[in-house]
Amino acid sequence: MKFLETILSNLEQAPDKTIFQEVWGESLEPIKSFQILEWVGQARASLRQAGLKPGDRCALLGFNSSRWVAINLAIMVEGAIAVPLYSRQAPRELIAMLKDCTASLLCCQDESLSEVIRSRWTNSPTILHFPQILKETSEQVGSQTVTPEVNSTIDNQQREAETVRERQNTAAKASVVTIIYTSGTSGEPKGVMLNDRNIDFMLQQTTTRLEELMQDSPKMEDDRVFHYLPFCFAGSWTLLLTCLYRNNCLMISTDLNNLANELKVARPHYVLNVPALLERIRASVSTKLRNKGGIGWLLFNRGQSAWLRRYNNEQRVLDFFWLALSDQLVFSKIRMRLGPNLRALICGSAPLADKTQLFFQMLGIPVLQVYGLTETTAICTMDDVNQVTVGRVGPAIRDTDMIIDKSGEILVRGPHIFPGYWNQPQATTAMIQDGWLRTGDQGEVDHRGNWKIIGRIKNVLITSGGHNISPEPIERMLLEVLSGGVQVIIVGNGRKYLVAILAGPLDQESATRALNQINQKLPHYQQVRRFHLTTELFSIENGLLSANGKQRRAGIEAHYRSEINALYQDQPSK
User: Fold this and answer.
1) Is residue 219 part of a domain?
2) Number of structural domains, the chain?
3) pLDDT tens digits, residue range 120-157?
4) Own/partner pairs for 441-449, CB < 8 Å, 24+ apart?
5) Is 280 found in the same domain as 264?
6) Do 303 and 189 share a structural domain?
7) pLDDT, tens digit, 9 for 90 and up, residues 299-317
């Protein structure tokens, strides 16, 4: 595992380097490389003592922290297969994953998380808590500041000898490094195996793209990287490993309810995001300015209109004036509040609304989109930092082939394609055919090689009139005209027309107005004729969202079956 050798070598060669900064309130608490190495050594001893052997599956359940990282590295160094789990996952799903991978050991952050497993599964695997694994007392767990007594903590010669043995052992170990469970938008989640070849290749790609983003920064300084997405997801884990691979400090969020303040403390150059957060930021900024009113709201509106006209090559005579004034008095202030050092916002996992991407571009903060699946080691395409096309997710990464088959499905092949699902050969065969991975996504590509993701093949609705309709573009149109915080799902398979479930803070009049607005732009068979309003948001807790925030369409339709049926009574004519 070349990537692991590189990471360990980086930690060893610069033991006094601050490799992590945990954001606690108003401060950044440093964690040095030597502390990570010490924790890795302690964790390895604890894992061996608990009976962990090469090839065993070792699950990891906890929130993001430098301790989580150290234990994850220890599992990989020992040659076991790391199985990161999501702490907010439903207990039923967590237990199903642990049973599926036949985990021999569960490393759990604390007793409050392990109790969820023990109370529902009498034959659970051996459970160790982080303090046990890292030989910490309660006082040490509460203290985040590390004293850099390098020489007294780790003897350099012993460390060097240990590293040589680790590297010799690594070459003979199984190539599967981790099993990451998919979000499970339909059916039970499947365990995606990723091997050292997948990860070695991907870290080279991400390193190259981040260096392009930061190419004009001082060479001796680290990128300021802030991270809040759970490490158990493939894209998030990839960014974590990329920072370690580049020997670049990573700032870790410790309070998802305090992200706005943590961003102020971190002052990052870039952040990995999901669309939902960026769309909330856009909606929040607009709402605050509108409620405040006055000259700020006037300039924001005038400036935004002028910027959009210029973007669409429809510039008017006074637009230059309004743009200059609004940028100086409004846009620049918003930009500073979001982050004075921001070079870009990186976004993946789901489609991003065009108007949200344009909003940040207007502020002078490009949003770089990434597309991929867990099965492709998180990434297939990445936006070119010098040539971003709004609404597209960039070109395919180097040494990767992407094509569209006759049905419109995107097929991919390359060194990042996973070797298969854990213990599910039939599912693997259905996913990989003749060397090509079937993504399940509909897409198109422009003349410059920039890809656009239209929707999921399996989500295509076939009306009783025989029309094939992808619901995602219509849902995105609705979200464009609705206020923030609303969720949308379009239904209509086997029916005469389409209807919508609208969840969130929305009234009948606003919903009707939004539907009328988009229906004017759609052919008759794609128009949404009726809708049902609910204040209950789709969430992980009620089972209507997957672990990484994707809508479980079948579950939503089942949950609102009676309401949907009511929408088709006394059907309106076409």
Assistant:
1) yes
2) 3
3) 998 889 999 999 999 875 445 444 433 333 333 344 43
4) 441/409, 441/410, 442/408, 442/409, 442/410, 442/470, 443/404, 443/408, 443/409, 443/410, 444/404, 445/402, 445/404, 446/389, 446/392, 448/387, 448/389, 448/395, 449/395, 449/396
5) no
6) no
7) 999 999 999 999 999 999 9
